[in-house]
Specification:
alpha+beta, Class II Histocompatibility Antigen, M Beta Chain, Chain B, domain 1, 2 domains, 5-stranded antiparallel beta sheet, glycoprotein, immunity, Ig-like_dom_sf, Ig-like_dom
């Protein structure tokens, strides 16, 4: 196992039923300055520890039955974080302070959660993936002014290749001409990555063109008249010619 700057432990359990496959994940990760303890199901967070606010968080939608990890879940996460950092120091001593591996984000996208309607509440999403180690720092601006109200970011989620994904959100009310940006910072970046979102007028459906009159019947009618005249002329010619032969 290759040791990296972030020591990460993953515990995955596959739960198989007759018609579905679910993945349960438990993450304990740490570095000198950051740490993460999270439980998830099918790439969705069920619970994580917020070490800055010193509390546990249940980022579950209100329409599902609540899931609880017990009153001592946050204290257990703090203990796991301490153990993780102890193991990190032992690994450094054993490998003589291995050089850090750093991967800059391979993809940054900004988009809205819902279709844009002016004055209707919406959410901007800044999707960052392919980076190592975790986390990234994401900041928002509105019309070149830093904004924090209504912003949030999830805990780093591991990808299959060992890198991470994080999603930052900003609640906003679309107004014509407003310009938003999300700025991504990471240890492997020499300068921040910036993505811009312009609030533009929603496209209006084009007025359908009036159907043009069909030329088919007129053409066929014209051909019918011409053929009829030619037939009449031919008939007259043969009649006259027959009269001369009498």
């Amino acid at each position: 196992m290759k040791m990296k700057e972030l020591l990460l432990f993953l515990s995955c359990v596959l739960c198989v039923s007759t018609d579905s496959l679910h993945t349960d994940i438990h993450i304990v990760g740490c570095s000198d300055f950051n740490g993460e303890v999270m439980f998830g199901l099918d790439r969705e967070e069920l619970w994580y520890a917020d070490f800055e606010k010193q509390m546990d968080v249940y980022p579950q939608p209100p329409f599902i039955d609540p899931i609880s990890f017990g009153d001592g879940a946050y204290e257990t996460a703090v203990s796991n974080l301490y153990t993780c950092r102890q193991l990190l120091q032992l690994s450094r001593q054993g490998m003589k302070d291995y050089p850090p591996l750093r991967d800059a984000p391979s993809g940054v996208m900004i988009y809205t959660r819902d279709e844009v309607e002016f004055t209707v509440k919406n959410t901007l999403i800044c999707h960052v993936t392919g980076f190592y180690p975790a986390p990234v720092k994401v900041s928002w601006t509105k019309n070149e002014q830093i904004t924090t109200e209504g912003s949030s970011i999830n805990t780093p989620y591991p990808n299959k290749d060992g890198t991470f994904t994080q999603i930052a959100r900003l609640k906003f009310i679309p107004q014509q001409g407003d310009i938003y940006s999300c700025t991504v910072e990471h240890l492997a970046l020499t300068k921040p990555l910036i993505k811009i979102y312009n609030v533009e007028t929603p496209e209006t459906p084009e007025t359908p063109e009036k159907p043009k009159p069909s030329v088919g019947p007129a053409v066929f009618c014209g051909l019918g008249v011409i053929i009829g005249l030619l037939s009449a002329a031919g008939g007259t010619f043969f009649i006259l010619k027959a009269n001369k032969c009498i």
